Amino acid sequence: MKKTHAHLADGREIIYFDESDDAQRVLVDPRHMEPGAPTSEVRYDAVLDEWVAVAGQRQGRAFLPPRDECPLCPSRDGRQSEVPSPDYDVVVFENKSPSFAQAAAPGDVSPLDGGLVPRHPAFGRCEVVLFTSDHDTSFAQLSPERVRTVLEAWVDRTLALSALPHVEQVFCFENRGEEIGVTLSHPHGQVYAYPFVTPRSRQALDSARRYSRRTFRNLFADVLAAELEEGTRVVAESRHWAAFVPAAARWPLEVHLYPKERVVDLPSLSDAQRDDFPGIYLELLRRFDGLYDTPTPYIAGWHQAPVRADRDLSYLHLTLHSIRRAPGKLKYLAGSESVMWAFVNDVPPEAQAAALRGVAL
Amino acid sequence: MKKTHAHLADGREIIYFDESDDAQRVLVDPRHMEPGAPTSEVRYDAVLDEWVAVAGQRQGRAFLPPRDECPLCPSRDGRQSEVPSPDYDVVVFENKSPSFAQAAAPGDVSPLDGGLVPRHPAFGRCEVVLFTSDHDTSFAQLSPERVRTVLEAWVDRTLALSALPHVEQVFCFENRGEEIGVTLSHPHGQVYAYPFVTPRSRQALDSARRYSRRTFRNLFADVLAAELEEGTRVVAESRHWAAFVPAAARWPLEVHLYPKERVVDLPSLSDAQRDDFPGIYLELLRRFDGLYDTPTPYIAGWHQAPVRADRDLSYLHLTLHSIRRAPGKLKYLAGSESVMWAFVNDVPPEAQAAALRGVAL
């Protein structure tokens, strides 16, 4: 694999990950652009003891542009996109409208409300990961070799962003489908580097700490072992990975994918685990897409150990979920979920696992 | 106010709240219906240390029926709806497809996965609250007198459901608008009685406990006082109530409404607080609806003290939020929010408060 660094016209970093060692990429971005001045901040919510990002400049971002104006396609035929090269395999670049940025610098970060609401610049980084130069495909249709390259890009970005000042957790994810609000249809994912441990990780790691004190065991490893032992919710299994619908799934369609041998983050995966990943992940995505007549909208995300905290308790895994609960019907987060955070799942996890296993591939 | 109890054909309870003491309601439901057999259960999610409800039978519920088949309109002209009477003011009845029910009784509630996943029948109750017999109006257009009657119904249901076995928290809420998945357009809300303290309340009360240990003060009262002192995010204020966009709002449009004098739940509100509520709440809803050309979809919910736990830390308040972030644009919960629970708000709270204050009423 060949890795090539360059910068876009406004100074943002761009990194090509090429499968051929003799790939040559166009490194100069001829556009005229001023460097962005991100003004995001994070504010402390005293009621819930959590950080919330406030990122006003994102309101103007690209919204479902026509196909021939896709900013994620390569630059061809005289049209300059976000990627200066006329082709690429996998490419990563800094998001033009970042929620988190190293340069984040709001004018005033004094605490609000007499000290109750500390705030800080939203230090961190947001990157876009393009999975292929082909506008009209999807992750599920990538070759295993390409998925392996994407995995190496995720590993690379996790290492690079973890080393940046103020970064406490790195999150690699993909939103797929207009039904979940995706504003660009070109196959792509994102990486967020947060200046805090995310609320879900904090809650899961607090739970894992209590479990470990009580049992001297790893919570995630025991959940995985119990699901494999039980078997009824297992959707796919390979030599090094296993995927199941969790017993207490929150979403109508939800699968968790774990490496069988515990590692804490993507860079810690062994070569054997990495080589074994494309097959099972592509199988899962194809099972998702095979459930209905149209491709399933989904959100896929990697749960990695925080950069510093609680690495001894962590267990790398990916969650994959959809809000589609039946053909043409979406699960909305209504009062119980969005106000009280109490989830009601209308699809029994055992039935959903059976449906996923039953998809003909 | 006159309160009248009756039962629907399948045994579900129905309660009329009438503004006139001589209102006469038809109490007999002539339909032939078998009693429902709710099979919901709650499952313990060991990873996040939370309960999740699994309610399979809800998949078949009514979905945007045509106007002349509305099950929430009164029974008139030979057509029988869920309300036997030809008219009503406010009426409450048990949900036909409940997520939580006193009769919940799944066949097998033995723990899953070797004890890691305890499960129980989803004891509790789900009720529907009809705000008016007029199909084509909205809460924002109710008379102040009617809002006062709805408030009395919420108080009544909070007291009644808190007394049921296994109920740990009562939640009164309204989902309004097809964009957030509302399946029946007749103006109505719901009441959920949960067999656990909801995750958001648990997190807020844990935060309030830490704050109280550190300061000997009530967290919510201090947040309210700080917002009133700061002023820039206050949207509306009356003699006994105050509403503001929180400094760390998660949603593009979010307002919190507190009584100025602390009470822990709706039944604890004084007569003066109750009388003063319709004016400020109607003002808030009209400000919401005045922001755009079309009525704003919203979710409104009351945060009440749990039935038993942490009542000393609680402070009754209502939250009102919308996922509409601009005309025709919705805020979707994508990777950061739905996977890591890390919210990115694209609308600065101060700007949103100013916009709400600027709505001409």
Sequence-ordered SSE layout with sheet pairings:
Two copies of one chain form a homodimer.
Chain A: E1 2-7, E2 13-18, E3 41-45, E4 50-54, E5 90-94, E6 119-121, E7 125-130, H1 144-162, E8 169-176, E9 188-194, H2 199-215, H3 219-230, E10 234-237, E11 241-244, E12 253-259, H4 271-290, E13 298-303, E14 317-322, E15 324-326, E16 329-330, H5 335-340, E17 344-345, H6 349-357
Antiparallel strand pairs in A: 1-2, 2-5, 3-4, 3-6, 5-7, 7-9, 8-9, 8-13, 10-11, 11-12, 12-14, 13-14, 15-16
Helix pairs in contact in A: 1-4
Q: In order across it, which strands form the biggest sheet of chain A?
A: 1-2-5-7-9-8-13-14-12-11-10
Give the chain pair forming the largest contact, with residue counts. A-B, 87 and 87 residues
User: How large is the radius of gyration of chain A?
Assistant: 21 Å
Number of helices of chain A: 6
Helix content of chain A: 10-25%
Low-confidence stretches of chain A: none
What is the rounded distance between the termini of chain A? Answer: 30 Å
Tell me which oligomeric state these chains represent.
homodimer
Total number of β-strand segments of chain A? 17
